[in-house]
Amino acid sequence: MRYEVTTPKRQVAMVLDLNKCLGCHTCSVACKKLWNTDSGTDYTYWNNVETHPGRGFPADWQQTGGRTATGDVKQGKVPNLDTEYGRAWQFNHKNVIATDASSKKKDWLRPKGDPSWGPNWDEDEGTGTYPQDNHYFYLPRLCNHCAEPACLDACPRKAIYKRDEDGIVLVNQDRCHGYRFCVEACPYKKVYFDHERQVAAKCIFCMPRIEEEVAPACARQCPGRLRFVGYRDDEDGPIHKLVEKYKVAIPLHPEYGLKPNVFYVPPMSPPKLDDKGRPTGESRIPMSYLEGLFGKEVHRSLEILHAERAKKKQGQSSELMDLLIAYDWNDNFKLDNPKAREVI
Amino acid sequence: MSEHANSSFTRRRFLKSSGAAALVAGTGLPLMHFKPATAADAGTPSYKLKSWDELYRQRWTWDTVAKGSHGWVNCRSACEWDLYVKDGIIVREEQTATYEASEEGIPDFNPRGCQKGACYTDVMYGPSRLTVPMKRTGPRGSGQWEKVSWEQAMDEIAEKMIDVAVEHGADTIYQDLGPNFDNGPTTVARFKFLFMSGGVFADNWAEIGDLNTGATLTLGFAHTGGSSDEWFLSDYLVVWMMNPSVTQIADAHFLYEAKYNGSELVVIDPQYSATATHADQWLPIETASDAVLGLAVARHIIDAGKVDEAYVREQTDLPLLVRLDNGRFLRGKDMVKDGRSKTLYVWDPKLDQPVIAPGCHGAETYHLSSDIEAPIEGRFEVTTLDGQTVHVATVGAIMREHLDPYTFEETSRITGLSVEQIKQFAEGFANAERPMILSSWGSNRFLHSDLMNRSKLLCLMLKGAIGKKGAGYQATGWVGLDGFGSELQVEYSGARGKIAMLMGMLSPGDLWDMTVDIIRKKKTEVQVARDVELNYEEEILCGTNVTSINYQYQGIKEDLNRELNEHFPRSLEDYFMESTEKGWEPGLPRNGSPKIFFTGGSNLLRRNNLPQHLLENMWSKMELIVDINPKISFTGLHSDYLLPAAGWYEKSGIKYAMSYVPYLHYCDAAVPPVGESKDEYEIHWLLCEAIQKKAIARNLPEFDGCGKRPTDWKTLHTRYSNHGDLGQKDTEKLADQILAASSAAKGMTVESLKKTGIAKYTSTGDNVGPVALFNPDWKGEGVLNTLTQFTEHKDRWPTYSGRITSYIDHEWFIEARETFATHKPTPKAGGDYPFHMVSCHSRWSIHSTWRDTPLLLRMQRGEPVMYLNPIDAKNLGVIDGDYGEFFNDYYTMHMRVKFSSMIRPGVAFYFHAWEPHQFPDHKSYKWLIPGLIKPLHFAGGYGQITHSLNKWQPGTAVQDTRCGIRAIDQNKVKEMMAEYSETPSTDQHSA
Description:
The structure holds 2 protein chains of 2 kinds. Chain A is an alpha+beta fold. Chain A contains 12 helices and 13 strands. Chain A has helices at 26-35, 81-85, 93-97, 150-154, 181-185, 207-210, 217-220, 238-245, 287-294, 297-313, 319-325, 338-343; strands at residues 12-17, 48-52, 137-141, 160-162, 169-171, 191-194, 199-202, 227-231, 250-251, 262-265, 271-273, 279-283, 333-334. In chain A, the strands form 5 sheets. In chain A, strands 9-10-1-8-13 form a 5-stranded mixed sheet. A two-stranded antiparallel ribbon of chain A has the order 2-3. Chain A is globular. Among the domains of chain B are: 18-124, no CATH class; 835-928 and 961-982, Barwin-like endoglucanases (Beta Barrel), CATH 2.40.40. The longest helix of chain B is centred in the N-terminal third of the chain and has 19 residues, at 150-168. Chains A and B meet through α1, α3, α6, α10 and α11 of A and α2, β3, α8, α14 and α32 of B.
């Protein structure tokens, strides 16, 4: 099915600069502590950080879903709780710390159930041959709040909608009957199932915060200062400049056809070494890999980055570099919303 | 009771900036479009949720907000957080993010923080939180405990302490300092108790491998570095043995922002670290070959004519004259009758003869500036006092010869790097205007780390980069919070206590001498203060170090002597004995191994090397072990009493004063202590009270402390409480006294900090101690750069020669051929096995805090992992996720394996600080690590080479350890582990 999605009045969006990502997961923890501490959602990470190349979270999420050439939503699958998401492991602190005389065996602290996957299982693994071309980088992910969300189309209850005032994609959990078609349909695998409340649950772009002009927790709490938040139509805002003006921020998997509103500044990397250990002119992360994630636009994006940085090296000015440096961190977030003001 | 949260922050929504906060606080306007609960109905919560989205909105509400930080954790950052309290529970924390940019054109510090700080609440309310006092009922480590009252615990501990001190002396009380450490009432209380009871402070800075002895040898202090935004100013950033993306999360952004600003970013690391992924140049160097690379760069700087000659002449020892017949400096005693041995010489080309070097001990003044155009490279003949003609050369001339072998080709052979890559790095460094090297605490864990760090510092000194804004050596400095030091010593509040303290430090004669020195302008007040500090350490403080104690009593002498046999001219024991005979080694406690151990600032059994020997030989001789801790740690599990300390959000605290972010960070008590826990100030108050009562009842005679000054336990509580001025609950009052006595915290009060959380330091403090920043001009404005005391004010450096030191003529260093930084191969500690065991601080924990927190374990593998390169793993037949067997001459242990392409083949890599009870059989990799002691670090009697807390002491090197790895049958291993677990613990206690 395909619903008509009217273009929202405004669209809030985020840019993530991968050249500043530390892989520290503060975003994931900030998000989790705020929204997903209940038992039904304990396995979910609306925001996660994954090491690429890697299987990601849920495992192998890139291999399912998207739209067909004619714009229909492909049928994906619901990831397995143990082998693809990873259950929220329980631990045996009590047995280990507070043994008593009756228990002879000293168990060691470990997750119950011998897990085989989790939200950050392949952290820092990467690929390639040391030291010539071994490589990895971090990719933080959240719901893309797509202009053409597959989850929305997949819902037979019409429970998913795009808010008119800011374009945030939400699940009306009062309407949701927990069929999980949305979980299947989202090719980014960013809709989850709340096992307790038996409804779909997904990133709400910190909607209560946005309503008060406060950036989402994942963005505001990011110590790497790599996230920019604002409205796409705000020409003075960081999103417009990075996405439209300088065209260095590009969406993840544009070929899925969902038109994401989360964009990435792609990663530069140190040069590969040849078999004698001499630096080559080629970056460690293969361009083909980046193309697979971000499409062909990634070439231009990286060229612009290198060119603007070269200007700075020569002592010239660069608005783009200054923007990415984020001299005043508060400027990373521009959420003045006249509508919100009216409500107050 | 103290007020637990600021009442002006009642049920308000989030605010974007402190400015907005002030505005709203003033008008009382709610910033939201739905009604807040008013103060009147705060007690009757509303459950009206109209719809699903209200449920989400409801999650982002709170009753009160307090300011907090992670005051007691040994993390090298400081970050301020808003703590959100709902129904008496802190539900979450979020950064306040109200820092300002230091200067125009520099990025600001916001928001700071990391994933651990974002979930301390999970530790605070977590499964290993200690909430009631406990007493062991079975053998140590048996896990058998009973809950006791505070009264009972204090009574029994006090009684035992008196009994043991009567038998063994008060200096049998022992506490290892940190690494968990704040500058607030918590640590003042711990230290004041120890100081006043006459116990021994055992520094573990070197023992944990964090003490930069290379920096001490070169600069006279181990800790140096300014605010992290100074990184942004460098045009050539070299991250050398550090991984800021992982270990300096709040500050790392400055590196990547500097890169956008046009700086070159170089990462030198055997591993392709998270920081290396963002580098312009990654140098995959052979493990422990770093000194060679530094020496090659130094050679290149000289050969390329890029030496900053004026700087080197004035600030460094390169122009000093050395006798070529014996390798010793030309000294006053060589030249004049009754000449001093500390008088050193440079060559004056105008007079064509040696003249006393400006800044050295024998010089007229302590100032380095001079008109003498002393040559850096030169050879001369000198007639000595006895009429002998000796050949002398400048340190610079000898150095050039010393560096000669370190060509790019030779460096390539040893480091495994290509000549092209070395050349690119060296040329970039030589041509840079403001080269900067970031070298972390983790850069001190090889036996020869001091040589590696000396070589890095050599590159910088040749470039004139040390003490130059935007350049130099970043290895962690501290703002001096002098109130912290004074409040743990005073016996009265206010000025009376401080004057009495100073009088106690100095004899009237000393006082007179120092006054004269200042009047005659021979020394500045700071230099005099530094002398007082040294005097204090020698005459008053009962200080030693954990390495020395362990070496003597842990039962590892034989092993360590064997390990080091071929690597030094004499045996380790020989060096130790000489050090003891000459009084270089503190020799405390005087009566053998310590009998009373207070812990809580650290986790000794978790972190010590070869803990199997420690448990068997030292632990079993301890008569009392008390762990005062919010957490049940591995050490706690092996103690006699567990006393629950309040967590960081439950007490008044001051995060230690790192220079990375030049703001004082206050931690408020957002909620009352969890369970029956109490803050450390109160715990020690109660303990002092119990001891004093018993001491009076038993009419206990004075103890002589550690032999330096007596302590009377009949007045212990009187002294601890400043003669009654500090009551049981006066933690905040003590915090205020610390602030009031700190010159870097002018105008700060607990009341004001409860509102703002942070306040910018007003100066760098007294610039006296071994962790000082030495920038007397910084008054809270601008980037906090360091060491201008020497480079701009021209004060002598606190080294033997008064200069930045490349050459050390201490007899041990001459004998061991370490006069200059040089390359020495890493020994194979633990035996000749194929894998080099290397560790790094963890992304996921600060030492063992957060190490067992489920929320974060789920974002790892849930258990400790050893990282291996996939190629090595394939050859071994080990599968990712399986338990592997790790072994060497000391032990065989098991842990899971994880593959990563970032790991250098031949390296077994782990992120540190897992609790032993997270491993099968509760045995960690520590059971394999001997922890080599560099014999030269027992040296003394030579300026900066003098035993001192935070500065110079023997340490243990873990990174030289080797191990073998085997794949094992996974089913068998699990059965085997279960069997291991059934064997009784070796931890038998006689008491």
